[in-house]
Amino acid sequence: MKNILVTGGAGYIGSHAVAELLDSGYSVIVLDNLENGYKELVDKRAKFYLGDVREPETFENVFKENKIDGVMHFAGYIKVGESVLEPGKYYINNTYGVMNVLEMMRKYSVKNIVFSSTAAVYGEVKCEGLVEENYPTNPINPYGASKLMAERVIEDAAKAYGLNYSIFRYFNVGGAHEKHHIGQKGEGVTALIPILLQVAKGERKKLEIYGNDYPTKDGTGIRDYIHVVDLVRAHISALPVLDRNISGIYNLGNGNGFSVLEMLSSAREVTGEPIDAEFTPRRLGDPAAVVASSEKARTILGWEPEYTEVSKIISTAWNWYKAL
């Protein structure tokens, strides 16, 4: 594969994928409607098209004008709370949008897709060990359900049309690129690392820690954090595997769990700021600990994460964020 279409390539993860693909020698075409993306995050070496995956007429010319060897599909809505309030918005974008992309791929004989999914497809994780790909999928919100439905659509299309796919289920993504000036921005971000940095920068008063009575080492929830560059490099490592007609579903995480208090302590050390925090009641459905097994990605894709220290993940994000 030489020419890769990246949908949602102006977003946080998509823009990092674009930069890493270009640095790896691929030609890149970006499709984004700029609703949640930023044109300034798109690497100037890429070819940019304004279009919407919900509207095939806005992006068919991308396929007409370019020889596309594979698609990396990042375009989608990601806010869990919003999905509960506006489920239709999520099913139309996250599921129907995928269907449109697959139909266009079929029409123009594009055989390979890499799909951005989520650990939210698992729902309330109750296992004590690492979460593997065969853990039961039972999403508890429309966001997770819309992504799981999209996974099923991709698998069915693969059987019907002879497509190859790599589906990646992300855990908690953070950090920013150290070579290219790109990172996470946008309104209403709910991830822990951006919230910590907003407090450090004085843009938010304090961090709310949901629950301190979990059966964990310090009573706060434990999660798995993966650096965004490690994440997108896994996507790139899937491309030669797809060339060999090997499809699969892969978890992407660090394999290490960090509690909220550990993240807070690390962020205070990295930023040199006090970062006020207070405990509040648990959120309904939040499990005590969720940590990924990424052994399948390591074995089949030959992928290894580089950023294994959470302080390094936070520091790359802080270097980007404080310069905004």
Automatic annotation (TrEMBL):
Pfam families: Epimerase. Its cofactor is NAD(+). GO terms for molecular function: UDP-glucose 4-epimerase activity. Gene3D superfamilies: NAD(P)-binding Rossmann-like Domain, UDP-galactose 4-epimerase, domain 1. Residues 4-253 form the NAD-dependent epimerase/dehydratase domain. Keywords: Carbohydrate metabolism, Isomerase, NAD. InterPro entries: Epimerase_deHydtase, NAD(P)-bd_dom_sf, UDP_G4E. The keyword Signal does not apply. Pathway: Carbohydrate metabolism; galactose metabolism. It catalyses: UDP-alpha-D-glucose = UDP-alpha-D-galactose. Its EC number is 5.1.3.2. GO terms for biological process: galactose catabolic process via UDP-galactose, Leloir pathway. Belongs to the NAD(P)-dependent epimerase/dehydratase family. Homodimer. This is UDP-glucose 4-epimerase. It comes from Cetobacterium ceti.
